Amino acid sequence: MAVDAGKRTRQRTGINEVALSGGVWQNQVLLNLTRKALLRENFIVYTHQQTPANDGGLALGQAAIANFK
């Protein structure tokens, strides 16, 4: 589904980058399979590297914005 959505979006907009973000991507099997499938279709794929994909990452972003204000 993610690959199909990416392909349709790329066809309409020319955007070739996909960010896999959110709690569903905590599932390492799903993340790896989807990332590989997108790479096979020549997408640029972004994933979390230093922050968690779930609520922990959201909380970090909220704290950063609160600190900025």
Fill in the CATH topology: Nucleotidyltransferase, domain 5
Radius of gyration over C-alpha positions, nearest whole angstrom: 14 Å
Q: Which CATH architecture?
A: 2-Layer Sandwich
Task: Please give the largest β-sheet.
Answer: 2 strands, parallel
What percent of residues adopt helix (DSSP H or I)? 55-70%
Please state the average pLDDT score.
92
Going across the biggest sheet, name each strand in turn: 1-2
How many domain units? 1
Assembly category: single chain
Proportion of β residues?
5-15%
Class derived from helix and strand content: mainly alpha
Assign the CATH class.
Answer: Alpha Beta
**Alpha carbon gap, first and last residue:** 38 Å
Outline the structure in words.
This protein has 69 residues and is mostly helical. It has one domain: Nucleotidyltransferase, domain 5. 57% of the residues lie in helices and 12% in strands. It is built from three helices and two strands, in the order αβαβα. It has helices at residues 2-13, 28-40, 55-68; strands spanning 17-20, 44-47. A two-stranded parallel sheet has the order 1-2. The longest helix is centred in the C-terminal third of the chain and has 14 residues, at 55-68. It is globular. It starts with a helix and ends with a helix. The model has no long low-confidence stretch (mean pLDDT 92).
